[in-house]
Amino acid sequence: MAGEGDGHAEPSEDDTLKYQLLGPSLTKAGQDAVDQQKVSEIIYNASKGSKFFNHEQERDRNQTIKIERLGKEKARLEKLDLSHDLRRADEYLAELELTRDLTQFVVHVDCDAFFAAVEELDRPELKTVPMAVGKGVLTTCNYLARKFGVRSGMASFVAKKLCPQLVLIPSNYDKYTAKATEIRAILAQYDPLFESASCDEAYLNITAYCNENQMDPEEAVQRLRAEVLENTNISVSAGIAPNAKIAKICSNKNKPNGQFRVSNERTAVMEFMRDLPVRKVNGIGRVFERELESIGIKTCGDIYPYRAFLTKLFGEKAFQFLGQCYLGLGRTKIEPVGTHERKSVSTETTFHEIGDNEELRSKLRWAAEEMEKDLARTQFKSRTLCLKVKLHTFEVLTRQTAPPRAVSQAKDIYTYALPMLVKLEKEIPGMKLRLLGLRCSNLVSTKKTGLNFFGFTAQPKPSTLTETPERNNEHEIDAEEAFESAARQEVQDEMNELEQLSQEAASPEIAESNSAEDVPVVEPPAQWECPICGRPQAADDRVFNVHVDFCLSRQTIREIAQESPQEESSSSMSTSRKRKTPNAATSTDVDPRQKRLFFR
DNA sequence: GCGGATCAC
DNA sequence: TATGGTGATCCGC
């Protein structure tokens, strides 16, 4: 914690900066026995004077200013009558409490020092020495290295200062993904619909497994972990809890090679959260931690006495998120990542400082070519293009533009990105960059699915690194789930097609400028009736899509209204939605994913 | 809608 | 000597 050890509650400027320099993974496992004071000193001295350091210092100063404002605002609020805010907060918490679901067993599985562990399988001699994977920046390190204060995300030259004998291994992602696939095959036996959170993490809902096998969740997870270890030689840690948020926190509790459970009782959950540092919660990082600490919130239990202040100090979204933290609520619905919708594709690279305009153009051309490949791989075109640069001072700038038509080819991307770069060169005389990148958003799918809306012919999903095993190959999967999966995919494709159409309607020239394989041919049924409202519709594909989409939304709202109002118990900060009206059932702000209810 | 900032892994 | 890449979300304007 910042300021610790100086005998003062108020952290000094250096303390916050040093804490910042320690990196984001301070709270991770394997650091308990480390003298943080000493480590922090070494990192500080290794970094001092560098451009990176100066930038961090600048950021730290800005945060301090923000926190000072926060303190003044809090002092101002304390003099006001907040009874209205207090009542509102209590009403919201009561509302949240009604959504609590304690019927599910959710598990978060986390591989221990995954990349390092995989490397150790190939070269067992690495097990006995401090070792890290990565080049300029470490992606993972083994537990021997952590004893020296070495952490993921740390610059390797700093790590070498902490631990001169540290062995560095270049990363080999293909190897890790292959291993991850082996592990996922085992996870699927416990929950075929498990969710890959990343290469080395997954969420499972083992409620059905436990019921079918008459097994205690802890016993089931013991078995799961043993099975993974036996078959793949990778040790994993796990958290068991009534929801994903707590399960995630629990998986870190007994790392490595351990597990921890918070039982499905309200008192157990509340007690667990009460003393839990807010930083342990997914979504609360170093900055928010500092802000919360400055007003007196260190643990999730501390949130409650401040409930009346939170909206005015941090905004509505943060208030709702913190409310869920205090109550220990989280999602219980675990679903494969394939069901999520991609929002952007991006590429960026760091290089040594470049000021020469010609050289920068060459970097931009390269980025555009990378982007073309990525868009082809993910099967998208893009209607919004964003240029990202990092100056030699580490300051990051972005500039965004909307090309007249969706782009997918390198030459088009370059054409529309170049003016942004030129403008930046003019704005910043003598501009020197250390990074250049491109991001595409407002995506339009180019997947060829045909338009058999009611045929439900599922398309095989592109297999990305974190994708779950192909559901269609798992013959033991419930037929209804497979059906639902296909339906979800269809709805997704449908919406993408709709976007594609609207985009083409706006710019007719695109249909000519692209070859047939880029743009799927749209063949709607000649005549049809809307399956929802039953009304006959004109055989115009655009109207068809718009109408069905509209009807689907309406249908969904009706269905949700009929179901219990607890449908969506809660969600994490990143997925939480507006909730101005207290009752979600009457809200028209429907999560698109809920449209699948129609297919039940 | 845009740009900056934060967060996770 | 030297501090990453990808994707997402939220806020203020």
TrEMBL record:
InterPro entries: DNA/RNA_pol_sf, DNA_pol_Y-fam_lit_finger_sf, DNA_pol_Y-fam_little_finger, DNA_polymerase-Y, DNApol_IV, PolY_HhH_motif, Rev_trsase/Diguanyl_cyclase, UmuC. One of its GO terms (molecular function) is DNA-directed DNA polymerase activity. Residues 562-575 have a biased composition (Low complexity). Gene3D superfamilies: 1.10.150.810, 3.30.70.270, 3.40.1170.60, Classic Zinc Finger, DNA polymerase, Y-family, little finger domain. One of its GO terms (biological process) is DNA repair. Residues 483-520, 560-600 are annotated as: Disordered. It comes from the Eukaryota. Residues 106-285 form the UmuC domain. CDD domains: PolY_Pol_IV_kappa (cd03586). GO terms for cellular component: nucleus. Pfam families: IMS, IMS_C, IMS_HHH. Belongs to the DNA polymerase type-Y family. This is DNA polymerase kappa. It comes from Penicillium argentinense. The lineage of its organism: Eukaryota, Fungi, Dikarya, Ascomycota, Pezizomycotina.
